[in-house]
Amino acid sequence: MPLPDPVPLFGPAYKRDPYPLYARLRAQGPVHRVLFPSGVTAWLVTGHAAAQRTLADPRLGKNHALGNDRWRARASIMPEPQHSQLQVHLLHQDPPKHTVMRRLVTDAFAPRRVEALRPRFQEMADALLDAALPADGAGTVDLVRCFAARFPFQVLAEVIGLPPHLAARFRRDWGKVVAPVGPADPGRPAYEALLRELQAYIAEVVADRRGHPGDGLLARLVTAHDAGELTREELDSMVFQLLVAGQEPVTNQITTALVALLRAPKALDRLRAEPDLMPAAVEELLRIDSAFELTTWRFLAEDADLHGTRVPAGDSVIVSLCAANRDPERFPDPDTLDLDRAQGPHLAFGHGIHFCPGAALARIELQVALGTLIARLPGLRLAVPDEELQWIPAVLGRGTSALPVSFAPPACPRPRG
């Protein structure tokens, strides 16, 4: 039986607003064959119930070795030897190796530990705004450049024990190595150069932490490698995952949350007047437009039925967290930002054994970031028409590459210095 033609999941219109497409796909059924920019096809799961079951399905593995030749020809974009050296982190592991690796990071992101750091995170947020805002407290700034692209990395460095001299040298451009750049793409040489630079930086981080052991997560991972719990490839991959996946999604989530609030000015005004609503508001903002739009690949070891669709072994299966989080069967009036919503948990951080280990930290970061921006930028509004916002072309994530906003001076300016 021939496979259905894949639905394309790319292009400016799709990245600006994928939700009408997701609504049509959900109405047709839970599983659909889709096409990504690199030419790779996948089976996309859309509804909330199907997504939750898929994320907990023990038949589906994450290890790239399970992918078939069709998938590998298009999706294994990172060249060797880097693919083997940087792609064996938590997101691409199954038990029992996944269990061992996850245990090494959970303490660093434990809710009680990161909550104790909230005052420090607040200091960081205030310092960034102090440096970025005009002296009279009014004007126009790009919140990505001056805040959203910087705050999450500062927090991450504090939490994992990345020393200041190394944190200062980290290039945000290195995060682009997770974007699809195929072998024939004209940008391939620049991509490979970024990849080599990042790999050299990771080697320097590992050497530094070996020479200066301490209690930070990076130092503990180096110790685990030296004790034989991790291979060198697994150690480098985990550092890679922390540096890239540990901060860029929060940058993007700050932008999606702010855009959602700016599109719902009554909710924004209420949140400014009732800051105690912030924890609940963050959950609703995560639901309505998650920075983790799609999960990474999963694979069946043999041909099997997936929610009524026959999926070949080794084909990639991806869950749309955004589509699941706007399923009207789970969330009434799902396209409306409702700060009083009480329909239960969203799937923005995933589900099952691969639930994001840094979820507690991300929640606090978002609460601090949004609370600080809303409190200190009265009259906050977009400085460009909504339709001119540039959405990042990432395959799996959502966010804006810039967020120009205007604001009025505060009633009581903060003292400088």
TrEMBL record:
SUPFAM superfamilies (UniProt xref): Cytochrome P450
Keyword hit for NAD: no
Keyword Signal appears in the UniProt entry: no
CDD domains (UniProt xref): CYP107-like
Keyword tags: Heme, Iron, Metal-binding, Monooxygenase, Oxidoreductase
InterPro entries reported in the protein's UniProt record: Cyt_P450, Cyt_P450_B, Cyt_P450_CS, Cyt_P450_sf
Transmembrane segments: none
PROSITE patterns associated with the record: CYTOCHROME_P450 (PS00086)
A matching Pfam family: p450
UniProt family annotation: Belongs to the cytochrome P450 family.
This protein's name: Cytochrome P450
